[in-house]
Design a protein that fits this description.
The protein is an alpha+beta fold and 311 residues long. Helix content is 32%, strand content 16%. The protein has a three-stranded antiparallel beta sheet with strand order 9-10-11, sandwiched between helices. A two-stranded antiparallel sheet has the order 1-4. Strands 2-3 form a two-stranded antiparallel sheet. The chain is globular, with a radius of gyration of 23 Å.
Length: 311
């Protein structure tokens, strides 16, 4: 609620939604060519892929999200442009408080001035770095994608019961605004499912449930590596159809030798959803075999002595 952070690659779901809503790209047409690093025009310092010096090669948007490929998203961010980018940042609520009924929420995230931002900075923002928001703002935006593109004000209480009178006060969802279309939201959810089934988010999977996810690893600047460290994160939605749960896990200052969001945050998300989804009464889609030919019937030896049981 109060502490801001760089969201890292989980933010790529926001960039993807902007690109799809504005028809900059579609989900499955090859639009990008990762060569291992992206050189922004006029800049001598490249933005490297996590596979550098190797590369992902030709990719669609879906594949770029599966691979969490930074060069592809830099390219995408520059195609979107700063004006459309900031228009959607405002729509997603990054420039204002969410309005949750808890104290200490900052007025807005910390972003570059739109009139001063350069292409290199715009490129890094496309994959969630060099600006800060609160985790609450990030999960509120992810929830808008999961909620057919409608941004809701987050709340912490569903209802209050007066124990003296039995009167129940219910808090209904407060719709803030429509950010993206349902069609775009469904496309992003579909790509998030691919991240889990084919991409970097596989460790967030839960048997019997459809999970959409996106991993994130936020890297501090060189002068802040010792004090701030990495942030490993994972955002998940489930089920893909009629989503009931949106979960954001952020792990601060993981070991430098094992700091990737998919590796360290993914398994924790899987464990959490394994408990949460059945608790909410969401049925598993795992099927049980009706073939009993491989079953063995054992005698009931309860309450028998050792001798009786052996016989």
């Amino acid at each position: 609620v109060t502490d801001e952070y760089e969201p890292g690659s989980v933010f790529k779901i926001v960039t993807s939604s902007i690109a799809l809503e504005e028809n900059v790209v579609d989900t499955d047409t090859v639009n990008f060519n990762c060569t291992g690093a992206y050189y922004v025009p006029g800049e001598s310092r490249p933005i490297k892929c996590h596979k550098y010096p190797n590369s992902h090669g030709l990719q669609s948007l879906r594949q770029a999200l599966e691979n969490s490929c930074n060069p592809a998203f830099v390219d995408l961010g520059l195609r979107i442009g700063k004006n459309r980018t900031y228009k959607y940042y405002e729509a997603y609520g990054f420039f204002e408080k969410t309005g949750i009924s808890l104290s200490g929420e900052p007025k807005s995230g910390i972003f570059y001035d739109i009139n001063k931002i350069n292409d290199h900075e715009l490129g890094t923002m496309s994959f969630g770095q060099r600006f800060t928001i609160t985790p609450l703002q990030m999960i509120t935006a992810a929830s808008a994608i999961a909620n057919d593109g409608v941004l809701l004000q987050p709340q912490i209480v569903d209802h209050i019961t007066n124990t003296d009178t039995g009167e129940v006060t219910t808090f209904t969802p407060n719709e803030v605004r429509k950010v993206i279309s349902k069609e775009t939201a469904d496309k992003v959810a579909s790509m998030m499912e691919s991240v889990v089934t084919k991409g970097t988010g596989g460790r967030g999977a839960v048997a019997g449930y459809s999970i959409g996810g996106k991993t994130g690893t936020s890297e501090p600047t060189d002068d802040k590596k010792e004090t701030e460290g990495y942030v490993a994160s994972y955002v998940a939605i489930s089920p893909i159809e009629d989503t009931r749960v949106v979960l954001l896990l952020t792990l601060y200052k993981p070991s430098e030798s094992n700091h990737q969001g998919g590796q360290v945050a993914g398994p924790v998300v899987s464990q959490m959803l394994t408990k949460i989804l059945p608790e909410l009464g969401i049925p598993s889609n795992e099927t049980t075999s009706e073939d009993d030919s491989n079953l063995i019937t054992v005698p009931d030896i309860r309450n028998k002595t050792i001798t009786e049981a052996e016989k």
